[in-house]
Write a structure and sequence with these properties.
Chain lengths: 110, 113
């Protein structure tokens, strides 16, 4: 079983829509969680860390459900510039390794 | 701010050739990483260095070697390139052990014929 699993999509949504992505992780020892954004042929860039109580950054909201071992990302009022691949990243409490999902592709349509 | 710098940006090799990918960071980070990204596979860890003077294998280390030259620099070497090593390679760094996120370089696109 993969350490981190994401629905690859693609998600095609109109401007202004709300879209949500989920990501599941297999190891209950996972302790740190992140969402990264990757544009085509570019490097991954940190979008936001995910905290136990959930957190919000402008139009973006991240949630963590430890009991069900998944994290989510909600994007409100989608913009054309939100079109990208969103990567779910998990780190265990031991060791120094990060585990990446394969990414979810989002296209926001005018 | 340069952040994480990778060289070269692009490279084409023939099977059997060797080369070294360079990575340098100017953020005084302790931990550095090398990943490869292939279609449908996500980023996979090749090697990492938790601190200067230490290196450890990741998920896919075969065919690669690394050197943590100093705190700033972490190089990845392909001794005898194979077509299966055609990929996009990313270097990343983070301040230390713990929950901080990683910062990535802009990648090296490597093709092996």
């Amino acid at each position: 079983r993969k350490e981190v699993e994401q629905d690859p999509g693609p998600f095609n949504v109109p401007e202004g829509a709300t879209v949500a992505f989920n990501c599941t992780y297999s190891n209950s020892a996972s302790q740190s969680f992140f969402w990264y954004r990757q544009d085509c042929r570019k490097e991954p860039k940190l979008l936001m860390s995910v905290y136990s109580s959930g957190n919000e950054d402008g139009r973006f909201t991240a949630q963590l459900n430890r009991a069900s071992q998944y994290i989510s990302l909600l994007i409100r009022d989608s913009k054309l510039s939100d079109s990208a691949t969103y990567l779910c990243v998990v780190r265990r409490d031991t060791g120094n390794q990060f585990y990446f999902g394969t990414g979810t592709s989002l296209t926001v349509i005018p | 701010n340069a952040g994480v710098t990778q060289t070269p940006k692009f490279q084409v090799l023939k099977t059997g050739q060797s080369m070294t990918l360079q990575c340098a960071q100017d953020m005084n980070h302790n931990s550095m990483y090398w990943y490869r990204q292939d279609p449908g596979m996500g980023l996979r860890l090749i090697y990492y260095s938790a601190s200067e003077g230490t290196t450890d294998k990741g998920e896919v280390p075969n065919g690669y070697n690394v050197s943590r030259l100093n705190k700033r620099e972490f190089s990845l070497r392909l001794e005898s390139a194979a077509p299966s090593q055609t990929s996009v390679y990313f270097c990343a760094s983070k301040p230390g052990q713990g929950a901080q996120p990683q910062h990535f370089g802009d990648g090296t696109r490597l093709s092996i014929l």
